[in-house]
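ugh ok fine here u go
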Amino acid sequence: ANRILSGIAAFIVEFFRTTPPLVQLFWFFFALPILINVNMTPTMAAVVTFSIQSSAFFAEIFRGGIQSIDKGQWEGADSLGIPRWKTFQKIILPQALIVALRPYGNEIILMIKGSAIVAIVTVFDLMGETRRAYSRTFDFQTYIWAAVLYLIVVEALRNIWHVLEQRLTRHLKR
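structure:
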């Protein structure tokens, strides 16, 4: 309802959705400490970057889920005299979360795959350790094993998400 807060939120969401994660990571690791005199460790910069960027995508997914619910749900609850916050909590939110469940899983998988860029600022995640192992051995198989590990992690997460989705939407299958 507040146009100023709504505008600020929309700007932040759009900014973090449309700028590359690498630019955001450089911003939080290199530029922000200079501008506001805050020392960020590489790990802290990576966590802040991916938290804010994923939050922007989650906000859009959630907004889309809410907007996908038919207006008749709100109108029906109004006609029964149910307060708006109770309508949102008990009627709209559960339906919106089911709609948003699969995109949430996709965003988590994209975040895991995108986390490889943190090796650029010396955070030794899977890709950072792979690069370090390759620099010692010059064996290209280290990159193949890194790809296999990413595949295993993402596939395991995808299967867990599928089971979760099946469980939460089992009442819709009848």
